[in-house]
Amino acid sequence: MNCKKFVLIFLIFFVIFVNVGFTNDKVLTVGVWNNPNLSIIKDSEISGFVVDIFKYIAEKNDIKYKFVAGKWANLYSDLVNGEIDVLIPIAYSDTRLKYMKFTDYNYPVFMNWGVIISKSKNIKTITDLKGKRIAIVKNDIFYTGTFGMETYLKLYNIDYKPVSVSSYEEVLNLVKSGDVDAGLIARNFYNYINDRSIYETFLAFQPVRIVFAFNKKINDNIVNLFDKELQNLINDKSSIYYVKYNHYFHNGSLHKKYVIVIYLALIITSILFLLIVILRKIIKDRTSKLIDINKRLTTILSATPDLILLIAEDGEYLEVLTSNEELLADFRDNLLGKKVKDVIQGSVADKIMNIIQKALDTNEIQIFRYELDVIGGKRFFEGRVKPIDLGYKKRTVLWYAIDITETEKILRELQVEKEKLNSILKSVSEGVVVIDRNKKIIFANKSACEILEIDECVGKSFDDVIRLYKDEERVFLPLDDIFNKGINFEIGKDYKIKTSKNNEKYIDDSLSPLFDSESKIAGAVFVFADITDKMIYEREVLKSDKIDTLGRFAAGLAHDFNNYLSIIKNYNYLILQKENLDDEIMSIAKNIDATIEKSIGITKQLLTFAKGGEPVKELIDLNEVIKEAISLSLSGTGIQYNINFEDDKFIVYADKGQIVQVFVNLFVNAKDAMQNNGKIEVNIRNISLQKENILNLSPGEYVEIRVRDTGPGISEVLMSKIFDPYFTTKEHGNGLGLAICYSVLKRHGGTIYLNREYKNGAEFVILLQKVKEVKTQVFKNENIIETDKKLKILYMDDEYMLRDSFKILLESMGHEVITVSKGEEAIEAIKKDNFDVIILDLTIVGGMGGVDTAKEIRKIKPDAYIVVTSGYSDTGAVANYSDFGFDNYFLKPFKVEELKKILSESIKR
């Protein structure tokens, strides 16, 4: 356990204090859909503005790819499901980021928006779409986007009839055929339509930026590569980007008005350039006095292995100082005078400018980490930015950047290990909760949440979530001792934890200090396991052991005790049969007989615990058994009862007398607990148990009987003792009632337990194996045939007085009786003479017993009528007498009527 806790604490340390990254390479499958002139699919040829740009970047960087043509809706699903790697063209949206990656939306391949087309000129405003059938491509951002058509139609509460299709061609065809009133398409696609009967309305939706989309599994390096290439192409006005743009959208030549604009732009650029030159001249003149000081300072600062930058609030590089130019995005001389966004592209430039602005606004040092492509390759930096006044006209910041690439590499490697360890931690069956020194939960694994029956506990107070109890009293763990002394603390398995749903579970747990990287106590780790099922199982085993102990005692007592009771009963019967018996003697004899019957009852109860007290089973209907038990135990009381049957019959194979006794015991206990005033509810249903179950029963079909009362219930302290033999809370009880119930049901392959969750009284649950197929049971005729036939009977018993009393008893009925003391004598008698009935005692001390004797007799006389008798046996030969070669049985002490019935059976045979 201590080793296990050490491993868990070690795992938690990595989970809490380490971070990670991940890379991967991928060959690209590119989905393309027909959206002229962005993408054109014609005669199996794939081209278009977006397609050509993608091809150029991929081929330039030796990236292998293949185009897959399809419809928009299908390709969109394929990208989300990871069946293709790239989808072009596609519009950027925040919502789609959940399912895919995009190139930088600040450098879109194309700007686009959605338009409504129609054959009617009457659609001029959004309200004109009311009641119209509108063709829409599935998942089209011009429909679903934040500023898409769907948003505005809902905003103006306009009813319409959407018709979902998978491509703009289908939209166009439906509009042409008149099957819809209007259609939503991309504005570039309208330029592709060569049909004057189709009009573009003034309705436009969701301006978007067209980008490349990648599935979530694609390596970020590939996405970043396309980002960088796109930025370079867009920034380079002579690149293939503008050549292709003119080719697809201006038929190879610039319109005149664009040429004029370009000339004007050149003139303005020239003027700006002259202004910059003049301004630099002025600045140079004004700062000439500081050159000497600046040179000395620059020499000192340039010796730093890190970066020192002076940057103006507009992003202009005013000074660059470092001894390692590999850390720069460009060489120092190229950087000076340029702005951050001229050198650094994308979101990193935005972050840098935001940090500069925040430092200037707050006049406080700002610290942040960033990744940048520099001369020496991709590097990680930690930047510290502070406002500084050096006499520039522009507000300025001092940017001090430290190269943390090696540190970041180590952290990412450790993060990989962290995720592995985190997966292990989440998979362990024990609950793990980590708290800080403020007793706030900062980590909880999946098992902890499942045991506590809570969705999330991070951020909550430890004492609010971990509610421990012992003997119904709240227990608080010694957290202060853990924090201050660093001790380990373990609790016993008698503790229970109350879940968020107020269910109680037994737990085994420990509490240990959590140390940080400086070996200081940063908090504590609480490791605990749900051992409720284990506790239930152990209690069942303990309960069974107690019953077995009593059984061994009962077994030692039963045989001799029943034999002696039989002797007394036989002689007493002979006394009662005397004529003209004195009244006083008659009264004494009857009292003796009544006492014997009570003694027999006690012995039978004890024998239910003994190994040999096997039930004599038959098919019985539990419905009838329960009704009989209620009649015996509740008649004449003020107790109300209700029986709920799921089926008409619940047939089990059981000893009816013993099962009736079980329910009588339960009903009497309930009656006493409610003081003859309350209600008993019995619910019966069929259930199935799997191979693994906490009740330790065989798998299969069972009948479940729940006996519930409205009494005061059973206290927690007494719950573990109620099935102990001789434990009672009644003044005149013998403490065997529930113990007998448990023993009887155990011998029937079932069980009984107290439902601890029921709080409105007491509820006992009984399980008995169900009979799958009920065959017609042939019952013996129980009527005793009165006959004058005199039988010749052989009786074997090792107890002399039993042989004597039995012989006198049977002879008084007119039968001839031969007695023997052991099996060897019985076999010799069989060889010499014929007998109508052979009665064999099961257990013979120092001689052949009933089972072996019966086997030998069958060899000599296969058709002999053999009856087994016993005061106690541990072989099951009485309960299953026919399996041992016997024709009938009776138990000692016996009633004369039972004996007459058996003799009657032999005559019928």
From TrEMBL:
| TM region positions | 258-279
Which reaction is the catalytic activity of this chain? ATP + protein L-histidine = ADP + protein N-phospho-L-histidine
Q: Which residues form the Response regulatory domain?
A: 792-907
Q: Which residues carry this modification: 4-aspartylphosphate?
A: D841
Residue span(s) of domain PAS: 293-363, 417-452
| E.C. number | 2.7.13.3
Write one Gene Ontology MF term: ATP binding
Task: Enumerate the CDD domains for this protein.
Answer: HisKA, PAS, REC
Q: Which residues form the PAC domain?
A: 491-543
- Domain of life, per UniProt, equals Bacteria
Q: Which UniProt keywords apply?
A: ATP-binding, Kinase, Membrane, Nucleotide-binding, Phosphoprotein, Transferase, Transmembrane, Transmembrane helix, Two-component regulatory system
Q: Where is each Histidine kinase domain found? A: 556-772
What Gene3D superfamilies would the database entry show? 1.10.287.130, 3.40.50.2300, Histidine kinase-like ATPase, C-terminal domain, PAS domain, Periplasmic binding protein-like II
Under which name does UniProt file this protein? histidine kinase
Question: Lineage of this protein's species?
Answer: Bacteria, Pseudomonadati, Deferribacterota, Deferribacteres, Deferribacterales
